[in-house]
Amino acid sequence: MESLSCFLLAMALLVAILLLSKFLTNHQQSLLPGPKPWPIIGNLNLIGPLPHQSLHELAKQYGELMQLKFGLLTVVVASSSEMAKQFLKTHDQVFASRPVTAAGKYTTYNYCNVTWAPYGPYWRQGRKIYLTELFSSKRLDSYEYIRVEERRELISRLHALSGTLVTLKDHLSRTTLSIVSRIVLGKKYFSEPEARQTEVVKLEEFQEMLDELFLLNGVLNIGDWIPWIDFLDLQGYVKRMKALSKKLNRFYDHVIDEHQARRQAAGKDFVAKDMVDLLLELADDPNLEVKINSDGIKGFMQDLVAGGTDTSATTVEWAMSELMKQPHLIKKATEELDKVIGRDRWVEERDFPQLPYLAAILKETMRLHPVAVLLAPHAALEDCKVAGYDIYKGTTVFINVWSIGRDPQIWEDPEKFMPERFLGKVTDVKGQHFELLPFGSGRRMCPGYTLALKMMGSSLANLLHGFNWKLPDNMEIEDISMDEVYGLATPRKFPLVAITEPRLPLHLYQ
Ligand code: HEM
């Protein structure tokens, strides 16, 4: 009897060892490469102030798909076009959620917007509203007059400053902010610097709030990665998020109150004129799949105003910086403009298809300077095998598009700014070509990309068509720094400052 129990025990042990070793072998086979993590901090010690560049260097060692620990949480980074395709196309649905972050909680009304909302009915409904009500080609065409008016303003402001030092980004942001505010909120809602303060905020205040929002939405907040020290707020980011949220909330309350008052005054005859009107109508709709409350309306306003402003302005500022480093490219661009447009009018959106060199400049800019260098983080909704590796539910995924834009296997001489590489090529930025993904791809792809392309095309074309560009007297081409600052958008560290002089007959600037 005793020997039988010993035998059974030995057999049970053997089976357990066999099962364990099989489990361990399987597990090891599917473990992603990556640096060995430290307790508690994981690999955060390897991430510098420009995380996309740190990850780019690490990918050279660990490959196109690697796993790290940010604090206690697992992060997977895709650094090649093939791996980007795996996450954004092959397994798009599994990776269509967002991680939980303090930024989502404190700056977007507890995930009540589209950008940070987890995958699900609320997010799906929000995206559908954007795509049908705002970004359909009919709706975008109906707002062309706004883009034209704001372009005229930009040109006349720059003309008035001819011969003086101009910080280009300030003017570009003002133009995109004005366009998006007018489309979404119905008017600008900020007082122009030249005018008396009649609105609830001044332009500079509003721009500062949006800059802070972008920065705080992109930072690596330690509490997100080591949740049990979250309450300490070691970097002070959560405090800043709460302060910002209060300011933004006051602004959104004011916008909603004004819209409600107009709606009540008009009674039954009321017709929705802008996105806020429409959202207020939808909030009263009992048939809506998921109810939208006032936090939702504010979250949506913010998505659009913030998402639409700095991104486009930053891209055009990068484009002008690259061009000013190589003046012969400006010459090529203006030759195209002179030939197609002539010198007696401005460039309109309908001219874009006839301006392939301009399109190539924008693509080349977005290759080297994608504003969302790691896209927005994606999160795995369930366990999934990607390229033979196991990725577990809850893992955060970053797609390093900055790295993909510099992949020597795809791009010849990748560090060189060379718009010609796109001439005669079908590669575009609409999420079908995984080597060029400034707007992402798949379910979470930027819904505003068509508007962005129109705003950027029009600003860049007319800046080149309307002005000659010179550096300040004490500056040489080599002095134009290409350093970046990391955030949800990655702008220039040192704003581009230049001197303009008019290129076209003077009556066109009036
Ligand atoms: C150059 C301009 C722009 C760039 C480079 C850009 C880029 C991006 C990127 C990379 C994403 C995340 C994609 C992902 O998670 O995989 C995104 C999302 C988003 N963008 Fe843009 N964007 C731009 C302009 C705009 C504009 C003009 C708007 C609206 C007015 C906008 C609204 C949004 C929204 C709402 C999302 C969240 C989508 C979601 O999570 O489902 N963006 N954008």
TrEMBL record:
Heme found in the keyword field: yes
UniProt similarity note: Belongs to the cytochrome P450 family.
Origin: domain of life: Eukaryota
Gene3D superfamilies noted in UniProt: Cytochrome P450
Cofactors named for this entry: heme
Pfam family, one: p450
UniProt: heme binding residues: 446
Protein name per UniProt: Cytochrome P450 oxidase 75B1-like protein
InterPro entries (alphabetical): Cyt_P450, Cyt_P450_CS, Cyt_P450_E_grp-I, Cyt_P450_sf, LipOase_CS
Oxidoreductase listed as a keyword: yes
Keyword annotations of the record: Heme, Iron, Metal-binding, Monooxygenase, Oxidoreductase, Signal
Gene source species: Platycodon grandiflorus (Balloon flower)
Span of the signal peptide: 1-28
UniProt GO molecular function: heme binding; iron ion binding; monooxygenase activity; oxidoreductase activity, acting on paired donors, with incorporation or reduction of molecular oxygen; oxidoreductase activity, acting on single donors with incorporation of molecular oxygen, incorporation of two atoms of oxygen
